[in-house]
Specification:
Blueprint lengths: L3 E9 L6 H5 L6 H10 L1 E4 L20 E7 L2 E7 L13 H7 L4 E6 L18 E8 L7 E8 L16 E2 L2 H18 L3 H21 L39 E9 L4 E9 L3 E6 L5 E6 L3 E6 L3 E6 L3 E7 L4 H13 L7
Parallel strand pairs: 1-4, 1-5, 5-6
Antiparallel strand pairs: 2-3, 3-4, 6-7, 7-8, 9-10, 9-15, 10-11, 11-12, 13-14, 14-15
């Protein structure tokens, strides 16, 4: 899991709609400056030691400043078009597009009078989600923003939902809403066919590298006996373990459960494992992983005497039942869930 995200910001002035026009806006207007001040902090790139999203922090080749912020456990660096180097007489502005064109999520900031946005005007293999933010009455006491989303068709929907016909006043609440939308948008895009395939290839290369370059030829001689020095008659005090200490383990704790396969309308015997990072269901008969999700994707749970429902991601749920009328297992699962680092942006 990555908790560092790079996000593009394209500036769209009144009367503009094309990629070229947006990339060629040399500097930010007051409305964009006001929005950027709400979104994050301007940071000097030279000597910047936190997440820099491929920006140059030594020689200013990618601009002198950028926009950076944190949200919950996430670091976000924004590739703002007007803060990246401007090249006169270069309509494509490749120094800017090299960064923003490789961002999965792009915020399109529209001034009043900007033409409607369409992703057909964007030429990029990576930009899969566009969050369009349109400002109304900028730089006044009544400034507010409307938000819309355009996503590639194989990117699943993601929260938080945008209320219909609602404008957001400039506030910390709107900032949190927008950052949550951006982060969830990138997480959703990784489930698209293109990024799933790329992730699979990357994992295959890592595994290949491990198998070819890090295999040890050393063997362990099981006949070797280890001798230990005894400390005479001194008796070591037994340390009494804290009650239910295992529930606080970093590693996985497992239970035998029965889960409902709604696709085939049948119950399946599984092993449920809950670690500090993941929840996993393994079918006992086939040993196949039939479900897994990050603890951070868990929204909540409800439990009865003999069953528990765990809700995750955008509201999906799995339903589990204990074996052999063992309600104690359900109680332990709830205790384990209560100490896990569950967090959600939904």
């Amino acid at each position: 899991l990555s908790f560092q995200h790079k996000v593009g910001v394209l500036y769209c002035k009144a009367g503009q709609s094309t990629e070229e026009e947006m990339y060629n806006n040399e500097s930010a207007g007051p409305a964009l400056d006001e929005f950027l001040d709400l979104l994050g902090q301007r940071v000097r790139l030279k000597g910047f030691t936190k997440y820099r999203a491929q920006l140059d922090n030594k020689t200013d080749s990618t601009g002198t400043h950028s926009l950076y912020t944190t949200y919950k456990d996430y670091e976000l660096m924004f590739h703002v078009s007007t803060m990246l180097p401007y090249t006169p007489n270069n309509r494509q502005q490749l120094l800017r597009k090299r960064h923003i064109g490789n961002d999965i999520v792009t915020i399109v900031f529209q001034e009043p009078g900007a033409l409607p946005f369409t992703p057909k005007n964007i030429r990029s293999q990576f930009q899969h989600v566009f969050v369009i933010v349109r400002v109304h009455s900028p730089c006044t006491d009544n400034v507010c923003y409307s938000v819309a989303v355009s996503r590639s068709k194989d990117v699943p929907p993601f929260g938080p939902p945008i209320p219909k016909s609602v404008t957001f006043p400039k506030s910390a609440v709107f900032r949190d809403f927008l950052l949550a939308k951006v982060i969830n948008g990138e997480n959703a895009a990784h489930k698209s066919e293109k990024f799933r395939a790329m992730a699979t290839r990357t994992r295959q290369e890592y595994l290949k590298d491990l198998a070819e370059n890090f295999v040890s030829t050393a063997t362990i001689d099981s006949a070797v006996k280890f001798s230990f020095i005894t400390l005479g008659a001194k008796k070591k005090e037994k340390i009494k373990a804290r009650k239910e200490a295992h529930l606080f383990s970093v590693g996985a704790i497992t239970w035998s459960v029965c889960t409902r396969d709604f696709g085939q309308s049948m119950d399946v015997d599984c092993l449920l494992g809950i670690s500090n990072e993941f929840i996993v269901l393994i079918e006992e008969e086939s040993k196949n992983v039939v479900f897994n999700c990050s603890c951070r994707d868990v929204i909540g749970w409800t439990s009865g005497i003999m069953s528990i429902k765990i809700f995750y991601e955008r509201g999906e749920c799995i339903m589990l039942s204990a074996h052999d009328n063992c309600g104690e297992d359900i109680r332990e699962m709830v205790q384990r869930l209560e100490v896990m680092p569950f967090k959600t942006l939904l």
